[in-house]
Structure formats: C-alpha cells, structure tokens
Amino acid sequence: MRYNETKIKELQDKATQIRRLIIEMLAEAGSGHPGGSLSSTDLVTALFFSVLRHDPKNPKWPLRDRFHMSKGHCCPLWYAVLADSGYFPKEKLMTLRKFGSLLQGHPDTRTPGIEVASGSLGQGLSVALGMSLAAKIDTLDYRVYVLLGDGEIQEGNIWEAAMAASHFHCNNICAILDYNGFQIDGKTCDIMNLEPMVAKWQAFGWHAIEINGHDMKQIMAAYAQAQDIKEQPTIIIAHTIKGKGVSFMENVCDFHGRAPTKDEAAQALKELS
Amino acid sequence: MAEALYQRDVYGKTLVELGTQNKDIVVLDADLSSSTRTGMFAKEFPERFFNFGVAEQNMMAAAAGLASCGKTVFVSTFAIFATGRAWDQVRNSIAYNNFNIKIVATHAGISVGPDGASHQALEDIALMRVIPNMNIIVPCDGPQTREAIYTAVSTKGPFYIRLGRPKVPTLENKGQFEFGKAQMLTQGNDVAIVACGIMVNEAFTAVKSLREKKINARLINMHTIRPLDAAVLLQAAEQTRGIVVCEEHAVVGGLASTVDEVVAENHPTKVMRVGIKNRFGQSGEPETLLKEYNLTAQDIEKAALSVIG
C-alpha cells in the first residue's frame, strides 16, 4: 500500500468525520459505547479507507479481505465506516439501537457488510481463525483483520485462538488490539493486569508490532509490515486513548458505556471540526 | 440377533463418503478424533480437517468463521463439551448467525459407562433445545445415524446430532427416515411410547412384553427433537390413554419436556417420564447404569402400566 503526506492527511480528516458520525448516532440512540469506538477510530479508518481490499457494491466478492470486530460493543465505529464506504445509506446511522433497525446494539448479520455477529466477548479471534483457514483450504489470498479490545483479551477463548492461529501458521491474520487501558470497572491494570502484553503474544508465536494507535503514519506502517510477515499471524498492539478526540471523554471510564447527552454531543462536535 | 453398530463408526464412514462428494465439507475436532471417528475423515482429507486440541470454545467459534466463508462445517467432540463447555459460542457464533454448522457429538448419556459423571452428558438436549435455529436429531441406531448426517448436510442451518459411545442394535423395518417426521414402529391405542436414541430399542422390548399382556402400545421413534413432529404426538394424545417418554437424558429439558409442552397446550393427557431424575451419573458398565437409573425395558413397561392405570 502507498501512502504519502496527502494520504495521511486525508485519513486523519476521514477519522474526524467518522468520530463525528459516532457521536451523532450515539446521541440519537441515547445509549451505546463511545469510549472504545473513539479509541479505535484511527485504526479502523485507516483499514477501511486505505488497506482493506473490498467492494461495497459487491459485499460477497470471494476475494474480499475480511474484517471482524470482536469487541462488538464498538459497532458504532463499524457502522460509521460501513456507511461511509457505501454499504448502506448514511441516514440509517440515526436508527442505531432502535426497534426494527439494520443497526443492532451489537453487531448482527442483518447489517450489510457484517458477516458474523459479535458482542459476546472473546470469540472474534476464533472467527478470524476460521476465515483464515477457509482461505488456506481454497488457496485464496485474502487477508483477515480483526479488532480486539484490551479488556476482552481477559477471556480464555482469546488465548485458545492465539495458540491455534500460530499453530496453523495463519500469516493472513492481522489482529489489531485497541489497548486503551480501560474496561468497564476501571483501569485494566487494576481490574486484571494484561502486561507484559508484547511478550505474551510473542510467547504465543505471534509477530507483535507496538504502535501509537492515533499516529496515522505508524498505523499505516504497521499494516504494511503485517503483510510482509510470511510465517506467523501478526498483532498490532496499538496504544490508544479511550474516548480519543473529545476532551471530556478522554480516559473517562464512565464513557465506556454511556452515550453523550444532546449538550455533550454538541460540545463534542464542536471539538471534532 | 440383530446387527449392532457403533454410531460413531457410521458417522466416520459417512463423513468420508460426503467428503468425496462435497469439497466444501470441513471437519473439526478437539483432541478426540479417534473416539469420535472424525479421524477417518482426517486420514482421507487432511487439508480439510483441523484438530483444535483441547479447546472446544475456540473450535466452535472458528467453525463460525469457516461457515461464513461458505464451508459446511462438522464439529465433533463429546456431548458434554460440545454443549456445556462451549454453549455461548454455539449460541452466539453459530446459531445466532444460522450457519451451516453440524455439531455431531458422541458419548452422550449415561451409557458412556466407566468414565463416570463428568463425561456423561445428561442435559445436552436441554442445552441445545433452548437455542433458536438449532435442529436436533437423536438417531436410534447405526443406519439412522447415516441418514441423520445426510439430512444435516442437505438442510441449511445448524444441527446438533447426538450419538452414543457403545454399540447399538440395528432396528429393522423402521420405514423411511424423514427429517422432522417421527417413525411409528408399532400400532396400538392403549398407550403411546415416545423414545429417542438407544431407548427406542429398550422401548421395543417393552412393547413386545406388553403385547403378551394384551396391551397394545404405539411406539414412536422421535428421532428429530427439533423441529418436533407435534402432529404425531397430538394424535397419540387423542387416541391413547397416555404417553410414556423415554430418553437417556435428564427428565427435565429434553424430549419429555418437549412432549409435555406440546400436549399440555393442545390436548392434555397423562405423560410419564422414563429418564434420569435429578442425579449425576457415575462409573459402571452401561447395562448396570441403565438398570440403576431406571432406563430399562422393565422400567418402560412399568410406566406404561401406570399410565393405563
């Protein structure tokens, strides 16, 4: 993939637009998860608008790269990038979490572009593993990207999948860890310490790349590096800030699972312009 | 003496047949491929078999990933692990997505024998039955196992197929197997006996003994638990004096509960349950355990007599 200063600036601007959509749809919904959606925005924006091989007009294209959001509660971000890519009209975003909506409170296959439901944490890396094995059986060269939350990797299922992905030499998997350091009840280091993070993944046989998850250049370089790893799965361990981009949400645990009020949303949109 | 087969041997052979015909079939196991017989498929099609080691949750969720890419995925392990250990993965990653994943679990029920309670799934039908989209077949013998597997492949959506550990005698003259349609093995209007799995054979013995006492029992092989053949049950409720349900499973949540729900809502009648009553299993030979847990032909006969009153 090619990127230059112009492309980086474009992606940064796109990320701001995506953050605005997240705030708008959450304020309209009145519930949902802004914190982790905003911390992953730069990572997922870069992926959808510069890395992923996909065709929103042909969502079942067999050669498409797969993306799965294992931390399903951050679906406002997923919905925003899908709508912005053209999988469904942007107006639909304002139906988030409402009765009869295409956009459920946690990801579901009724949403165009979503292939596997998520929401019950810890299963998405296994889903990615299955997608990766299917590519190997069919000798297709698509890649599988999966977004993990940091609190989520406290689930044992994640480590079963981590072990298997290296055992099966799933070099087509690129996991992205949104390491914002917070979970519902507090800081991950207080609730259930995850360190040493890099060493853990390396010990499970993964290629680990540690980056600042808000630095678009580092993000793009990490995705490029992951494509060159021939024997192992790769994980991008991205240090991020929960609630990134909205001053009064940054590193505030309350905004893990609380939508902004109308006033807070107006304030947030002022900051995201 | 009728032929007796291991259902899992039939499963392994059927998988190999299907693997030859259908390149989209993928098989997963969790370190039990010699016991479940998926090893037979692994030997023929190593590129389409994956051993997940002792990690059932990962296996179930990975099956979802494979199915999302168009594969028909067979997933096997012991019933206790398939349904209990990985229930959330089965619910959220498999059934909720309505994927083409066929869970074929072996070593169900008390007839696991010497391994004891930890390995004897007595609640697996209950666990699968409450999940929307899940189809459930409990074949009664070897040949019916093959029919169940073929049905699962040709029918879209998730399946739970329950197999046992020991050899089971083949029941002759069952008639055609039709998914979702029970098989009436004997006619009779005094009492109806509804059974699944290895209990069908026990029930058949009970029916013969009842006949000597001039009691005509209608024996129904309810091989498909979901979708349930409600019509055949309502007919039995209307035309007989009561129903005896026999299953190698807890008396709550499984076939008996299903029958109770249907008749209570539509045509209340007396229902007696032959199954495991609020107990864990234990070590012992299958025949010893079937006696200890009141799962024999004699127990079925006793229940039938009590229904008639």
Give the DSSP E fraction of chain A (strand runs of 2 or more residues): 5-15%
- What radius of gyration of chain B results from the CA coordinates? 19 Å
The chain pair with the largest interface is:
A-B, 33 and 29 residues
What percentage of amino acids of chain B are in beta strands? Answer: 15-25%
Strand order of the biggest β-sheet of chain A: 1-2-3-7-6
CATH superfamily of the largest domain in chain B: Thiamin diphosphate (ThDP)-binding fold, Pyr/PP domains
Return Rg of chain A in Å: 17 Å
- Low-confidence runs of at least 5 consecutive residues of chain B: none
The profile of the biggest β sheet of chain A is: 5 strands, parallel
The CATH class of the largest domain in chain B is identified as: Alpha Beta
Count helical runs of chain B. 13
Determine the N-to-C terminus distance of chain A. Answer: 28 Å
Give the name of the CATH superfamily of chain A.
Thiamin diphosphate (ThDP)-binding fold, Pyr/PP domains
CATH topology of the largest domain in chain B: Rossmann fold
Find the count of extended strands of chain A (DSSP E, 2+ residues): 7
CATH architecture of chain A: 3-Layer(aba) Sandwich
Q: How is the biggest beta sheet of chain B arranged?
A: 7 strands, mixed
Low-confidence stretches of chain A: none
> Structurally, how many domains make up the residues of chain B?
2
Question: What is the CATH first-level class name of chain A?
Answer: Alpha Beta
